[in-house]
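As noted in the main text, all predictions were made from sequence alone. Below is one such record, for 3-dehydroquinate dehydratase.
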Amino acid sequence: MERNSKELTVKGKVIDGQSPAICLPLIGTNEEELIRELKTIVAQEPDLIEWRGDFFEKLDEEAKVMDALLKIKDLAGEIPILFTIRSVTEGGEPIPLNEEAKVHLLTRLIETGKIELVDYELHNESRYIEHLREVTRSHDVKLMVSYHNFEQTPPLESLFEKGEQAEQYEADLVKFAVMPDDMKDVLVVLEATHSLDSYLRIPVVAISMGGNGSISRMFGWRFGSMITFAVGHQSSAPGQIPLEDLRTVVGIIKKSL
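Prediction:
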């Protein structure tokens, strides 16, 4: 299978799809939990760390978020940080911020220069996405535009449209994570991944969630998915696999090729 030659450079780290960049989630509810969790994660040397801000209980106190970010950045060292606030409908936690306040917080975090990527959902108002595109670009931060569906796997055509929308926003990469009813749905995701990787100018991150979809986390990179998410300390989504298991599978695939 021919792979595209797309590359994404994050903090000097080149993500080129020849192996999946493995991202571990950070989901502590307070600073003490974050630091304890992060020490476990950093020891495993992932390619990326995703701080899921929606788990942080003081998300509405900007000073506490900033202080936590500085400590996270210090411990993470050269590992790039992806920052995400996921809503309940996107599989996240209840948060004390409306969309305006969330975008304000994202903007302030981007301006610190302490994060390398931001994830923002495609269904949000275009003015918010366009604002974040402008701010991330001016601070050399990558913008991932995402689509999540925890109920079903939409048809191939619908996933294709999501990818095109993200590219129209000039995102640096597009992510979709959807729930399969059966293995046919997993095949839809893999086909969409391969088609979008061939068609779009931007890289693709694609996940079929849950037990059936776990193979997309292991093999999706061969179809064009640049990043996969594993378990470092705690899982943040259904179907995530422990990092060492994932590395073993990827190593076997690369050896067989």
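The domain at 8-256 is CATH 3.20.20.70 (TIM Barrel). Residues 31 and 68 are 6 Å apart (CA to CA). These features were considered when defining construct boundaries for the mutagenesis experiments described in Section 2.9.
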